[in-house]
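Journal club side-thread
Mid-discussion, someone asked how the predicted structure for our own chain would compare to the paper's figures. Pasting it here so we can look after the session.
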Amino acid sequence: MIYTPAPSVTQYLLSDKFQSFIVGPIGSSKTTASLMKIVYEAKRIAPCTDGIRRSRCAVVRNTRQILLDSTIKDFLGLFPEGQAGEYYRTELKFLLKFDDVECEVLFRGLDDSADVRRLLSLNLSFAMLDEVREINPDVFNALTGRLGRYPNSMLVPHRPEWGNDDEGNPINGCVDDNGREMKKLWGATNPPDIDSFWEKYLTEYDKEKVFVTIQPSGRSPEADWKQYLPAAYYDDLMVGKTEDWISVYVDGKWGKSLSGQPVFRCFDRDTHLAKEALKSVSSSLVIGVDAGLNPTAVITDQTYDGRVLVLDAVTGLDGGMGALRFCREILKPLLYRKYPNKSVAIIIDPAAFQRGQTDEKSVADIFKNEGFAVKPALTNNISARIAAVEKYLTMTVNGNAGLLIDKENCDGLVKALGGKYMYKINNKGDVDNTPLKNHPASDYADSLEYACLHHDKGSIFGRQLTVAYSTPQNVSMAAWT
């Protein structure tokens, strides 16, 4: 069999991280890539003393019935019984054999925390999760502790060229030909709901050990798997479906939160996230700032044709950080490092100009004293702020998005726009008129709103506003520590 993966699954298939996940729409070849990864990883295991590359992989689904109806059928479609190996139905095990490889594939339907005990005696090389969002977190946590335990040191003894591990122990067992650890877990899924365990895990992961990729919408020109589907597959799939269903299963967006409704529903990752790193195109930057207990800044630029580029988004440290520390320890070092010759204008909540009762100094004064040109946002009206962002989210200029975000430097902002910034829904299902102050998502969103209000120059009010602001200025970096 010759398998040619779609480009959108290739990085996932070849990922060498401890954990790898792919999130995407229905029909996007995620499951096929996951199953083919078993073959890819099994071929990389160092051979045992008899020359056979042995491994053991658990393929996990949330229920036994779905495992039988879906996952096993998909597996046998790729690896036919009698050709690719032997299928032991009573044990739900397939012995995959090719070249010098023997891989035991154990199919397990694990419903809930009570099934954790079924994992405790397994010694595995790898594990694959099918439809990750349905897997109980307790099952996932237990499974990670069973990986890399087969083959053991008796089957794959130490080789002198492998050396010792970080603790000084001779390297052996579940490793590749170069002695590198081979314990792996991977899985595919449709997007989970916002605020669920899996949404948080897949957005707040350890990038050193975990790889996550999100595929484009099934309606996107970049949906590179559609040649494997029937004609008009997604058009037919959407017939009779709700907007929320289409958003998850066709467009590959995170599902609705149980506690709120996303504010910016017109945000689309495929449209608004830049495919490569963004660069400043003008001599002057506009920085929207939310000056709460934990200040946040969104650094923007504007192109000659009026589009807004979001270059960076930063927030203070967890637990609170004053404006002065934020300026000196986060914002000014960032500007010095990446934008040394740019003039800067800070656009801030008008309330930041209110002076304190103790020292009669406002938050705006702190930014001014650090060398910034500081300007109040045109308004603090929440409807106007949201409308300013939506104007650029829905704008296209010569086929280019009106708002383009550097996804590598704006992770917190992307999460906010993707649904973390939300309206609260009460017990009766009614939606509040104002967004939740759910930090840091609301801080990132507020900062972007102030910046977009400035770029818009009042057109959302039905007229252009002329505001007597001082000229943006270059910021001295001498004071930052």
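Post-session note: The two ends are 60 Å apart (CA to CA).
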